[in-house]
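A quick aside before the break. I want you to see a complete sequence-to-structure record at least once, exactly as it would be stored in a machine-readable document. Don't worry about memorizing anything.
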Amino acid sequence: MCGIVGYIGGGPEKILLDNLKKLEYRGYDSAGIAVKSGKNIKVFKSAGEIKNLIRIVKPCENATSGIGHTRWATHGKPDEINAHPHVSENRKWAVVHNGIIENYADIKKDLLKNGVEFYSETDTEVIAALLEFYDRGDKLEALNKTLSVVNGSYALAIINRDSEELVFAGNKSPLFIGVNGENVMIASDIICFDGFCDKYYVIENGEYGYADKSGIKIFDKFGKKEKEPVRLKCSFSGNENLYTHYMIKEIYETKDAVKNIYEYYSEPHNYEMITKHDFGKIKKVRLIGCGTAYHAALMGVEMIENETDFDCSACVASEFRYKNPKIGEDTLVVLISQSGETADTLAAFELAKQKCALTVAVINVEYSTLAKKCDIVLPIKAGVEKAVASTKAYSAQITVLYLLSLMLKSAVSGCGFSADEVINLYNQCEFGNVNNLKLLANVFQYNDKLFMIGRGKDYFTASEASLKIKETSYINADTYYAGELKHGFLALVNSDTFVIVFATEKGILTKTLGNAEEARARGAKIILFTCFDLDSDITDKFYYVIKVKDVGSSLQGVINILPWQIIAYYTSVNKGINPDKPRNLAKSVTVE
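That is the input. The structure line, written in tokens, reads:
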């Protein structure tokens, strides 16, 4: 979470603000910048979105450098006092930070005993205090001593009142540096470098250093490092939004993502790392993800089990490494993450590697940490996704996991691999009657709870649909296996209750419809979601029926989620909520 940017060059105020807008997907609880102006550090901070900060920032005379931050709050409420940058007591040091200092409470207690005063509730303020405490005129010595004390994750950008340098350090949080002549930029995402430079440096765990107009100096525990820059291969232009919000734009881009996947995986060299791999030792497949990615993992389990004989299961990333999972050289661990920077998923990767498992990254951001670390990388080719609630990326993850199931089948049996089913999905990809979906959104906006039931893959779709509604509309949309209705939550059902029945699994359709009857008998309003042509004596019993196309394959889940993403979007808009920036959430979850 949190976005940081630092800059050396003229007019840093505008550069910082422009790039904080690019990083706002990482958090928007509060924001701030600190600018070196002559022999002073000037700080501007505000609660809320970047636009609030823009209103208060004033030009700073003779400004030569600065740092900026957009926050997703971890320690301390999201207000102006807790907003970054944080400044040392003598106002000599200013710091922005992404990550968590796990031992900050102990550090703070010790510094308080030494007469240091604190003004915020954040963990980050101890870094500024430590820099001042250890400052004896050598910036790197002060930084080294500070880093030797703190435990946790951090990407740091730091300025000093008496120096023209931008100091930085990274550990378990992404950090990159780009250079353009005498201008230097440091950022937590390379999207900031688009239009600024064509190469950048990656700051690895445990690396630190400083930059000035003459260049960059990078160090680790062994001393100074010579690093080769990475070419900026991604272009982030052309992502202009002609829609009211990015969320609806990205829903409609699902079809483009499916086409991109087909074109990419139709080229044999893009998947030969799977089909040519020796899977003779592999007996188990474990799929790992968080939130939406976990729901995609559940779909992936069904697909892989349908196509192969592997023992397959899914696990929430935040639980995986605390379960003592039985994995090893006989296990393929598939890690699913839109950003490729999800802290819990990266922690699951580290455990998988410790146990010598083979790892696969199913990711959208191809320059991410997860992409760099995994043995095999399967990009989902969804393009930039800015809305916090993932939409097209989820559909793309399911599609690539389906192809992975076919790749594994091919690698084991030698039967050959084809991505043709994906182009069939592209040709059948429909978004339904939007006006009818808006009618349901008009109904849902006045409810504080919804129930969703389904069996098999329908349950997974229901789980993702409920998550979208929760994220964007703040409605408690609960999901249950349809067969569990009578084992507890039926006690919550009455005449004011909406129960949405997901019924696109043909083999268990009758069972699911029977469960719907159980809820209807208790007076609930039942909404049917199906892909089948049912007789009117069945459909007439329902409050409302949503019908989608039957694609006749494991990719039905892509078609099934589209109307629910649209319903979630319009429910949010009807309630006056910005679906791109729901409260308390951020796009890239880089803390555990």
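Two observations worth writing down. The chain has a mean pLDDT of 92. DSSP finds 19 helices and 25 strands in the chain. We'll return to this after the break.
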